[in-house]
Design brief:
Layout lengths: L9 E7 L2 E6 L7 E5 L9 E5 L5 E7 L2 E6 L7 E5 L7 E6 L5 E7 L2 E6 L16 E5 L35
Antiparallel strand pairs: 1-2, 2-3, 3-4, 5-6, 6-7, 7-8, 9-10, 10-11
């Protein structure tokens, strides 16, 4: 058993490889933090993070980016953070949707956002009143592939891999 006292409420945890990405309530210190969990029995201090100035309600990762859902703030309510260098993450994008974001999820080239109730029009052309939104991440370095079959002499994976259903490895 091991843990870290971050001295405020933790709202979201996402793990990828040897790092845990956490979102916390606002307060003293970073609301988005990265911890090395390569050896879970010795979780140490924060490796890197960002002061957001508001509660971070949701964190998910895809490729070299963390996608962060933030409580209502002046500025971007969801943010895209480059975490390729965990000790020095940097915000590279996002959107101001004028309401708090409760959850973010990435699938392929789309970011899905669940936010607080908001007035306005929700239609195919206008999303100001939508509580569930999809954003096309085309142009963001977020590679994905759907492959029905793959034959290869070798396969090298340099980042993360999620394999659903069954995986068989043998000679």
């Amino acid at each position: 058993k091991n843990g870290v006292n971050v001295a405020k409420e933790v709202n979201s945890v996402f793990t990828s490889g040897k790092f845990a990405y956490i979102g916390t309530d606002s307060g003293s210190g970073n609301e988005f933090s990265i911890y090395n969990i390569g050896d879970p029995s010795t979780i140490g201090s924060e490796v890197g993070g960002l002061e957001i100035g508001a509660d971070v309600n949701s964190v998910t990762n895809y490729g070299k980016y963390s996608y962060i859902g933030v409580a209502t703030v002046s500025g971007n309510d969801f943010r895209i953070v480059d975490v390729l260098a965990p000790a020095s993450p940097s915000t590279v994008g996002g959107a101001d949707i004028a309401i708090g974001v409760n959850e973010v999820f990435v699938s392929g080239k789309y970011l899905y956002v669940a936010n607080d109730a908001i007035g306005g029009t929700c239609s195919g052309a206008t999303i100001t009143g939508c509580e569930f939104r999809a954003y096309d991440l085309s142009g963001v370095d977020a590679p994905s592939a759907t492959i029905g079959a793959l034959a290869a002499g070798s396969l090298n994976i340099y980042d993360n891999s999620l394999i659903g259903n069954d995986l068989s490895i043998g000679n």
